[in-house]
Amino acid sequence: MLDEQLVFLKLGGSLITDKHTPRAVRRGALARLAAEIAAVRRARPAMKLVLGHGSGSFGHVPAKKYRTRQGVDTPDGWRGFAEVWREAAALNRLVMDALAEAGIPALAFPPSAAVMARRGQVLAWDLRPLRAALAAGLLPVVYGDVVFDEILGGTILSTEDIFAYLAGELSPRRILLAGRDPGVWRDYPACTDLIAEITPQTWPNLLAAVRGSAATDVTGGMAGKVAAMLKLVENLAGLEVWIFGGEVPGNVARALQGDPEGTCLRAGRDAAII
Fold this sequence. Notes:
Elements (H helix, E strand, L loop, with lengths): L2 E9 L1 H4 L10 H17 L4 E6 L2 H11 L8 H27 L4 E3 L7 E3 L2 E4 L3 H8 L3 E5 L1 E5 L3 E5 L1 H12 L1 E8 L4 E2 L8 E2 L1 E2 L4 H4 L14 H15 L4 E6 L5 H6 L6 E3 L9
Parallel strand pairs: 1-2, 1-9, 2-6, 3-6, 4-7, 9-13, 12-14
Antiparallel strand pairs: 4-5, 7-8, 10-11, 13-14
């Protein structure tokens, strides 16, 4: 049974960084987004929120250089593993600072410190501290990060990977993925035709039209994001995943209050492509 008060929100790497320029954070956007989250938390004190964020122009650049997601088994690869960790942590520090400046009591839960994986899937993660943070009214923050892997040595888990595991354990009612685009385009890169709804049944006909990210992204781009989230909505009855734009002021606040706009992913066998 889904927790009607629990929402997951991801601030995409393209939204909080300039993904075309290494280590370029969009400070104004980050401050605005933190303020929107803070306002909704004040207005809806019963809401429980898990926040995630991408690595954008921080972690993706060294991850691509060292091919960290594919596995780590050499001294040079482990140096890259540590470099990706450092970059992801650096961006997380900036996110945490913005949340603190907005008055939000937030705690970071870096996957690298707590998750053990097997073939790129979460194998073990003690979620008691994260559950305690939620119960105390704090904001747990997770992000795409390196993790140790029993088979691959080391790898990278995207925020979507992290959300997928947490959703199976915590059962949120809604997952909100905020990026720069207003949803999933049917005709990327022309970007004139937005898809309103995607289901596991309609996705095969849409896959060829949905391209990956235009910038460096080692975790699958838009197509990978949609595919991962569709698996989740198939397994959690009633779950909705929204891919939407966070560039327009107020969009994140409206989505958190239950009025998202963008592309909805749901498990509806009779749903049509809109």
